[in-house]
């Protein structure tokens, strides 16, 4: 394995160092556009060395890290093999709530005290020095409160504009011109920086013009000789941010508004330079709704005409015209991903996806008649006002699609539990995560598996219902959590980060997950953007 465009700086010629942490494995981190963008952006400062840190691929993690007997040397940066505690700043890019336990494992394994309070005590006691811990990303912007015991500074919103201001301020502190307390006091005046110990009011930063986001021409591209390598070897091209459709469950629509497109001219210039400077076969289009770009078709055509392959994320059904399908055929796309979310039109319309079953059948028929053949579907269960009939309608819709004549395993079906996100219209919709309803959620999965597993064309992408539901419930708790939840999660981590560990944490802290969710249902909210 090797990675192109790695930046290795001479630490004797920099003013401070930045450990860029993705709290999961290399393959997932390198499939994140955020990691590539931040790596390029931070290293564009001559006086800063930015190096990547991931959880080791060769380890099966044991929680807490004190019970994991692998060497802490496993956790060195990729570029200069530096230990996490040797960086001036550790910056975490957080996308998924269920990576929370991995954050604590990384800090613990690096022998960095987990909480702000513990680090302060250690510093006062023996002048210990620890990296400044910061974090940003969708999970932070959504709700930073469950993370506020652990991080010194949390970035809310887009970071392109405030990172230079933050770095200037940190450099002043790093040169010992101001105290740590003065540094934090000044940091709270930088737009988008939440300082947990100061509990300052903060406004989400929005990069209004996406053309102002620097384009990583020299982009990290990993060459991995493995069938499992999907996106690491692709070049990422961000078309837009936010989403114009305002689906009620979607954090992109409500945490990343307004919807913004990069200009066509900027995109074409980006592609031209990337072809000149980087060696890759495929461009992956990035955005919550790439097909809403007004020049989407022309962008795809330009990529194909320049001899590059193309991948796209989930695409709106109503945007899949015959012309777009033919274009995808030309791009040698093997699978199209769509997200009906629900089987019934009533439930789907209530979500904000006003797409009829007739339209879905029409589009998948056109895909079946093309050279593409494979379709990946995303459905949600446990939605607000969902009835047993709505589960039957998922089954009915998929059976109707199967009858169109799809070949074996060509329909890949993902069915996930709905997870309420704070500051969205559905943030209070926690009904199916209450104790008395968890069995109902499992039965929905059992019913879906029972009816769909024997259909030749369908491959089900869900296993172990109990585990899926427990993880989703924990993710919902973190998404909606407050300071008490922060304490609970620390106890959960120390008790092994397992479902049994969560139950023990509830008992240790006299905390009821069920009562907390009921409190949310009654309109309690720990965080407002």
Write the topology of this structure.
Blueprint (H helix, E strand, L loop, with lengths): L1 E3 L11 E10 H4 L3 H11 L4 E8 L33 E5 L6 H10 L6 H11 L5 E5 L1 H5 L10 E3 L6 H13 L5 H8 L5 E2 L26 E3 L11 E4 L1 E2 L9 H5 L4 E2 L2 H14 L4 E5 L9 H10 L3 E3 L10 H9 L4 E7 L3 H7 L5 H12 L5 E8 L6 H15 L8 E7 L20 H15 L5 E3 L4 H15 L3 H12 L4 H10 L4 H9 L8
Parallel strand pairs: 2-3, 2-4, 4-5, 5-6, 9-12, 12-13, 14-15, 15-16, 16-17
Antiparallel strand pairs: 1-8, 6-7, 10-11
Helix pairs in contact: 6-7, 10-11, 14-15, 17-18
Structure report:
The radius of gyration is 24 Å and the shape is globular. It folds into four domains: 2-157 and 162-194, no CATH class; 209-292, no CATH class; 314-470, Transcription Regulator spoIIAA (2-Layer Sandwich); 481-529, no CATH class. The chain starts with a strand and ends in an 8-residue tail after the last helix. The longest helix has 15 residues, at 388-402. The strands form five sheets. Strands 3-2-4-5-6-7 form a six-stranded mixed β-sheet. Strands 14-15-16-17 form a four-stranded parallel β-sheet. The protein has a three-stranded parallel β-sheet with strand order 9-12-13, covered by helices on one side. Helix 10 (296-305) runs parallel beside helix 11 (322-330), helix 14 runs parallel beside helix 15 (438-452) and helix 17 (483-494) packs across helix 18. It has helices at residues 26-29, 33-43, 100-109, 116-126, 138-142, 162-174, 180-187, 251-255, 264-277, 296-305, 322-330, 345-351, 357-368, 388-402, 438-452, 465-479, 483-494, 499-508, 513-521; strands spanning 2-4, 16-25, 48-55, 89-93, 132-136, 153-155, 193-194, 221-223, 235-238, 240-241, 260-261, 282-286, 309-311, 335-341, 374-381, 411-417, 458-460. It is of the alpha/beta class and 529 residues long. Helix content is 37%, strand content 15%.
